[in-house]
Amino acid sequence: MEVMKRETEHGWRARRRSRVLIASVAGAVVLGGVLVLLPWGGGDAPPPAPGPAALARGAVTTGVPAALPDLAVLIGDRETHLRAHPLDGVSWAVLGAAYVEQGRRTADTANWPKAEKALRTSLKVGAERNPQALEGLAALAVARRDFPAAKKWGESAVEAAPKRWTAHAVLIDAYTGLGDHKGVGRALDKVMELRPGTPAVRARAAAVYRDRGWREDAAAQISDAAAAAEAPAERAAYLEQAGRLAFERGDRQEALRFFQEALRTDPDQRAAQAGQARALAALGRTTDALSAYQAALAKLPSPEYALELGELYESLGLDQAARVQYDLLRARVRGAEAAGVDEELVLGRFEADHGDPAAAVRRLRTEWGRQPGIAVADALGWALHRAGADEEALEFATIATDGDQGGGVRSALHVFHRGVIEKELGRYGPARRHLREALMINPYFSPLRAPDAERELAELGEPSVEDPPT
Q: What are the Cα distances from residue 49, in Å, to 36, 54, 233, 348, 379?
């Protein structure tokens, strides 16, 4: 009897272990990819490859770009799971991060309210110091161009988890938007300490080095990041970044190669398609450029790209087509603002050149008071010039182009703006120098403004041998 009892207990425990294992496997499937971490039957056979939800989850929780189809699967998976488990704070945070990434990749502002709701729910049902949800709210604020909020949430995430490198990474974006260049340096140093040499960290370093004017260092970092990236979506994002760097230094052909390779690697990389259009326009292939812009805008309706396309039409004398794009820009800005996005910068730039410069000054003054980044300094300086306030305009143009004040980025557009303002003020020596510098940095920086730079420089002529240097 005792033997039979022990055999019965042994059988019951074996059956219980079997049920637990089955339940664990089922739970792994529901959680989207944990299954790959469990032992797989069949001796030494490798485990199955992770599915789309697992791939996307791995991307959004480790600070790298995710493929759009995988994101859609992850979002559907988490939404289904949360209907049955509404108190799962971790899954709410994952869902919120996925919404942010999807919105960033598609410019679909409907994602922002959904992301905010998911991330705040994560804080409500889980721990209040949930670093993943705090970091997600910081990334959402960056996507909305709300850099004060990004700083608040990002610093809270760092306080909750000081060793979480992705929290420090999102602070790089927040501090950049606020013009806090020392803060950017500290955040980058921390990221490089916590995750040295990874592709995502190299891409972050490349962006910071670009802003400092370290063009060769930036190019080297992003080249290494693209070479080391394994997932196609991640590699395509870094190739697109490399293309932007190449275009900014005036290398049209290399930029085009980077953008085309990014699109071959990930056809959903619409930022690369807009970059391709930019490079094609610079190469004089305007028909191809127009087609590429239209294709990019169909999938990524960014106000920035609408402005670029409108200015390309205007440079070709197609004023009616340009006005159509400018009207679309206004409509997209209204939709974005309804979803909590700050589009004052792009709207101010548009109004300064194509609308009401005085309205642009009002918008950009407010923006400068709230988040004084270098791009805002340049836009405000140019708006002031267009409104006739050149003395004040030069103050902001100097901030945007002076490395000691944070404007170390070698931007042909920023230097062009400064040169035109100096010419208007009769400071012909500095004006001549800056207009030449703009065309040396990138002779193709804008289909409208690059020809303007050549005309302004021709009007200045060569300096008189009798006049002392300025």
A: 7, 10, 17, 48, 48
Place of tokens 């410069």: 357
Q: Which H helix or E strand runs over 166?
A: helix 165-177
Local structure of residue 405 (DSSP, 8 states): G
Q: Within 178-251, where are the H helices?
A: 181-194, 199-212, 215-228, 232-248
Instruction: Pick the most confident of 28-32, 125-129, 174-178.
Output: 174-178
Contact 360, 386 (CB under 8 A): yes
Tokens 């009798």 belong to 466
The DSSP code sequence of 6-72 is HHHHHHHHHHHHHHHHHHHHHHHHHTTSGGGGS--SSTTPPPPPP-HHHHHHHHHTTT----HHHHH
Return the structure tokens found at 67: 């493929």
- Closest to 420 (Cα-Cα) out of 450, 376, 441, 442: 450
Per-residue pLDDT tens for 350-364? Answer: 999 999 999 999 999
- Cα–Cα distance between 225 and 237 in angstroms, integer? 10
Identify the weakest region by mean pLDDT among 20-24, 53-57, 425-429, 446-450.
20-24
* Residue range(s) of every CATH 1.25.40.10 domain in the chain: 197-284, 359-470
Confirm whether pTM is higher than 0.90: no
CATH architecture, range 197-284: Alpha Horseshoe (1.25)
Query: Which residues, in sequence order, are CB contacts of 108 under 8 Å at separation 6+?
Result: 102
Dist. CA 120–CA 135, nearest whole Å: 11
d(CA 359, CA 386): 11
More confident residue, 207 or 58: 207
Mean pLDDT of all residues in 394-415: 93
Question: How does pLDDT run across 190-237, given as a tens digit for each residue?
Answer: 999 999 999 999 999 999 999 999 999 999 999 999 999 999 999 999
For the segment 143-165, what is each residue's pLDDT rounded down to a tens digit? 999 999 999 999 999 999 999 99
Running DSSP on this structure, what letter comes out for residue 356?
-
Contact 346, 364 (CB under 8 A): no
d(CA 468, CA 470): 6
Helix (H), strand (E) at residue 363? helix 357-370
Q: Which helix (DSSP H) or strand (DSSP E) does residue 172 occupy?
A: helix 165-177
Cα diameter, the chain: 120
For tokens 């949800």, the residue is: 133
Contact 277, 292 (CB under 8 A): yes
Interatomic CA distance for residues 235 and 143, integer angstroms: 21
CATH number listed for the domain at residues 359-470: 1.25.40.10
d(CA 70, CA 49): 14
